């Protein structure tokens, strides 16, 4: 009986440790996801800016000179 209790205590201790480790992994992953979301938003803004600049440049290149 005493051996069974010791074994159960060891299992609970192991599970507690594992749970803490997994919780830390989740915390780290959430931080990484937040950084990736910020990078993605920054890239979207840069792409929109580049697209706007490209459209402005291509629009002015296709305009006829004033003497036409």
User: Roughly what percent helix?
Assistant: over 70%
Q: What gyration radius follows from the Cα positions, in whole Å?
A: 30 Å
Total E-strand runs: 0
Low-confidence stretches: none
Count the DSSP helices: 1
Structural class: mainly alpha
* Topology as a string of helices (H) and strands (E): H
Average predicted confidence as pLDDT: 91
Residue share in β-strands = under 5%
Shape type? rod-shaped
What does this structure look like?
This protein is an all-alpha fold and 68 residues long. It is 88% helix and 0% strand. The chain contains one helix and no strands. The longest helix is centred in the middle third of the chain and has 60 residues, at 2-61. The N and C termini lie far apart (102 Å). The model has no long low-confidence stretch (mean pLDDT 91).
Question: SSE layout and pairings?
Answer:
Elements: H1 2-61
Task: Note the main attributes of this structure.
mainly alpha, 0% strand, 88% helix
Brief summary:
With 68 residues, this protein is mostly helical. 88% of the residues lie in helices and 0% in strands.
């Amino acid at each position: 009986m005493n051996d069974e209790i010791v074994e159960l205590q060891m299992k609970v201790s192991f599970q507690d440790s594992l749970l803490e480790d997994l919780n830390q992994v989740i915390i780290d992953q959430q931080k990484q996801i937040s950084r990736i979301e910020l990078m993605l938003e920054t890239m979207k803004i840069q792409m929109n800016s580049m697209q706007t600049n490209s459209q402005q440049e291509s629009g002015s290149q296709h305009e006829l000179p004033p003497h036409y």
